[in-house]
Amino acid sequence: MPYDLTPFRGIFPAALTMFDRENNLDEDATAAHWDWLIRQGVDGLVIAGTSGEFIALENHERVRLFRLAAQVIAGRVPFICGSGHYSTKLTIEMSQTAQEAGADGVIVILPYYQNPAKPAVIRHFRDVRAALDLPVMLYNNPANSACVDLNPREVAQLVTEDVLHMVKSTYASVVPVHDLSYLAGDRMAIFYGSFQAAFEALCAGAHGWISGILNVAPRAAREMHAACLANDAARAFRIWKRILPLVHLYTHQLIGPVSDLATYRSILNLWGLRGGYSRNPFYPLDPHQEETLRGLLETSGWMDPDTVLDGV
């Protein structure tokens, strides 16, 4: 294996990109949030992923974020850049730019929207890898890309070919994690990529967790991962049940039909941090929704993230 994958372990928030009220990129607020996540003890960051709103960014803005990440992170943790695009040409160009900026790896989404056939998807990843000298993470997210996914045996084969080195497995089910751990767990880094079954995934062999919810639960997630590593499943499950109220805000739509990213931003604002804005049409919560959110956070103990794990 050409790369040391040991740095790719643990809690990697899919870091938010901050915009201002007029939908312009806010580099100062973005940098402040990334720095806060690192000070919370995360193991790495994913830059310009789904929760970083790569789909809403111009290509030159993604490049700005890659370069900003190198400056802000300054070697404190590894960072992985979201370089995927529908076209192979632009994916290669964006991946090469991430490599030049100092990224530790790239995460490449399945080619989206046009739904190419499976052989074309596999060739896409082979061509991207041939153009890089950097670990490549497959972003296996068929629900958001409208693309056929790669099954565990196909992923393992591409690991054998030195095409893929990591995966973000974005399914509610942990079955792909089980299978990948069995087929190639000693030759790749496996990250669970949803927020619905992270406890089970970490117990099932995932090396880490990538999710947007980690923008607001970095410390609790870190403690859960540490408990799993220590084979203390009981403590890990207790921590997971403390995280579930944040999960349910979106999965149960407890504050109405709003995006998860808008919810995370309002949580950060309620904590006195800079939550920024998403690019529309991910509109911010209205005043009634924010009051509902405040009440839910108070009830669940999440108004003070520093004490939410007390007694666990």
What is the compact description of this entry?
The chain is 45% helix and 11% strand. It is an alpha/beta fold and 312 residues long.
Provide tags for this entry.
TIM Barrel; alpha/beta; 312 residues
Summed up, the domain count is 1
What is the rounded Rg? 18 Å
Please state roughly what percent of the residues sit in beta strands, choosing from under 5%, 5-15%, 15-25%, 25-35%, 35-45% or over 45%: 5-15%
Number of helical segments with 4 or more residues = 12
CATH topology: TIM Barrel
**End-to-end Cα distance:** 39 Å
Main sheet strand line-up: 1-8-7-6-5-4-3-2
Question: Low-confidence runs (pLDDT<50, min 5 residues)?
Answer: none
What is the percent of helical residues? 40-55%
In total, the number of strands is 8
CATH class: Alpha Beta
Q: So, the CATH homologous superfamily?
A: Aldolase class I
- What class do helices, strands and sheet pairing give? alpha/beta
**What's the overall average pLDDT, rounded?**
97
